Amino acid sequence: MDYKYMLLFLTLGAIAALSGAQHENIPYEDVNDICETCVCLTAHDGDKRYHHLLSCTLKRFKHILSRWPEEFGKNHNSVDIVATFSYNNIELLQQLPATDAKLTFSCRHCGIKYLQEPTFIDVPNIRRLDLSWNEITSDVLTPGVFRGPYRVDHYEPIDLVDLDLSHNKLHALDKKLFEHTPNLTKLNLSYNDFTVFNAPTIAALSSVTNLQDLDLSYTAIKTVSASIFKSLVNLRILNLSGNQLTAVPDKLQLVGSSLMALNLAENPIERFTEQSFIGLKSLQSLNISDMPALKAIDKRVFTHLETLRRLDCAHNPKLVEFDLEGLSHCSNLTNLDISYCALTTIFVIANVTNKSETGETTLAKPWPHLHTFETVGNPWYCNCTLIQSMEYIGLPQGSADSAARCDTPYYFAGELISNLTSQQICSLRIPKKFKIVEEEPPRFLRKRYIILSVITAAVVVSVGVLIGFAIAAIRRRLKRDDFGVEPIRYTSVRSSNLSAFSHGNTNSIVVNGNGATNGNL
Ligand SMILES: *[C@@H]1O[C@H](CO)[C@@H](O)[C@H](O)[C@H]1NC(C)=O
Ligand SMILES: *[C@@H]1O[C@H](CO)[C@@H](O)[C@H](O)[C@H]1NC(C)=O
Ligand SMILES: *[C@@H]1O[C@H](CO)[C@@H](O)[C@H](O)[C@H]1NC(C)=O
Ligand SMILES: *[C@@H]1O[C@H](CO)[C@@H](O)[C@H](O)[C@H]1NC(C)=O
Ligand SMILES: *[C@@H]1O[C@H](CO)[C@@H](O)[C@H](O)[C@H]1NC(C)=O
Ligand SMILES: *[C@@H]1O[C@H](CO)[C@@H](O)[C@H](O)[C@H]1NC(C)=O
Ligand SMILES: *[C@@H]1O[C@H](CO)[C@@H](O)[C@H](O)[C@H]1NC(C)=O
Ligand SMILES: *[C@@H]1O[C@H](CO)[C@@H](O)[C@H](O)[C@H]1NC(C)=O
Ligand SMILES: *[C@@H]1O[C@H](CO)[C@@H](O)[C@H](O)[C@H]1NC(C)=O
């Protein structure tokens, strides 16, 4: 307890010191014997290239180190260093210790609020930087943070390729934020509360022309400006999931020749039209799952997406129609997920035929490379069309828990679709539907069988009761004649029979009556 209070006290002290003082005089953690406190690892690959790892996670550090461990050697030319300080309490990220090595640096969950500018001036070869899960605000993130050493009349750029700023407190970017990082190809801004991209933010994003992978998920945005797409001509992966988009962003086709993966999941989009994905001629992966408002995917929506391999369209509770035929041009399709929607049917015509060498024509599969087809969780209407389409696609046999089942018509409700064959279903004609319905329940549930059973039971019961009474009467007379005394236990048996009968427990009457008959005859 005392220890914790002391820590708190020290932290508060540090904050007080920070707010007043310049950053220059802040101490670093003690680097002596650091490899005893942290984990240091060294390996070298076939090319004799050294890889050093320094892991100081969860060490209650308040600062990083002022230099690299002695164990990493003096010359860092053609050396890789991976350093992590995640899960410490580093409110101010100080200038990183100097090295020429290719550096990967992470400090996630560090509580970072401030960055000592220029933070990376002594590590110009930093490649990857992960500062996710911190408290970095827009004011703190200035272009100066990323500037390299000063040379003659300008600042050198740094080699940053991959920057993760997810889960911070950004709501805008400085328009020149990326002026010192020309090689940035991967940028993660997810889980920051942007809401709208203001002009400087748009300018900043538009300036990263080498960007290939942009994660803007969960940033509360409603639109993405077309000018961003105009500049990002190398964009390959775009994640816009978990936002407030009501339509596919305008002019997305400006990145159409490079864009390979698009994630639009968890957006309030109601409908996709033929125009939605026009011009996305390289798209291989599309995620349109988890859309609570999605009601319709118009015909021909996917016809433009010939290169598509993977389509995720799951958990769309209002989606009642899905035009599978539109996907027939996507010959490379490998994964199709339409699980947990509100689909009752799908329809694919067996169109493509395959001529074998012997001249026989057989049906070619619509998607020869398809290996995953998820259909579970839809209220399937199991008629001929559906079962034929499923057979034609070639539904892989899933386990019973994850396999699709019929919802209607009721006599197939709960049946595994993979258990039905089109031979079986297609021979049931629609006009015969009512006969089928009558013939379907098991024998003992049919009306005339039920009536017959009730009558039989009643007859058996009455006969049993009558015989019982007759026997009892005869016995009484016999006993009185033979012994002149009435045994008490016989009376009790009879009276219990009668009381059971008066309570409607006919079974016990029948059994007892028969028993009595057997025992006495
Ligand atoms: C950016 O990448 C290019 C090509 O890989 C390289 O020549 C250049 O030095 C890099 N820029 C910086 C600032 O490292
Ligand atoms: C971006 O960050 C989030 C949260 O840290 C993570 O889940 C996601 O995978 C990252 N995106 C990319 C493209 O790496
Ligand atoms: C965004 O999507 C990309 C690829 O579609 C994925 O790698 C990344 O993890 C996603 N980000 C989040 C926060 O889920
Ligand atoms: C598609 O997005 C949903 C919701 O974000 C996610 O759960 C799912 O894993 C994504 N699918 C793929 C293949 O990335
Ligand atoms: C399908 O994949 C092959 C091999 O990767 C590729 O050559 C071909 O162009 C693809 N077809 C389409 C329509 O994208
Ligand atoms: C069969 O497929 C071809 C292209 O693969 C298409 O042009 C044609 O319209 C289809 N026929 C029918 C009846 O759908
Ligand atoms: C068409 O037939 C050839 C050989 O007869 C076979 O290798 C190929 O897999 C078939 N294609 C489809 C799509 O069934
Ligand atoms: C099967 O059901 C679907 C949807 O209700 C319908 O469009 C289709 O015509 C039906 N097929 C047959 C053969 O009845
Ligand atoms: C599927 O068919 C098998 C054999 O015909 C049967 O034993 C099984 O109970 C069926 N499963 C369901 C869920 O109806």
From TrEMBL:
The chain crosses the membrane at residues 449-474. Coiled coil: none annotated. The keyword Transmembrane helix applies. It comes from the Eukaryota. The keyword Cytoplasm does not apply. It holds the Pfam family LRR_6. InterPro entries: Leu-rich_rpt, Leu-rich_rpt_typical-subtyp, LRR_5, LRR_dom_sf. Residues 1-21 form the signal peptide. Keywords: Leucine-rich repeat, Membrane, Repeat, Signal, Transmembrane, Transmembrane helix. This is Leucine-rich repeat-containing protein 70. It comes from Ceratitis capitata (Mediterranean fruit fly).
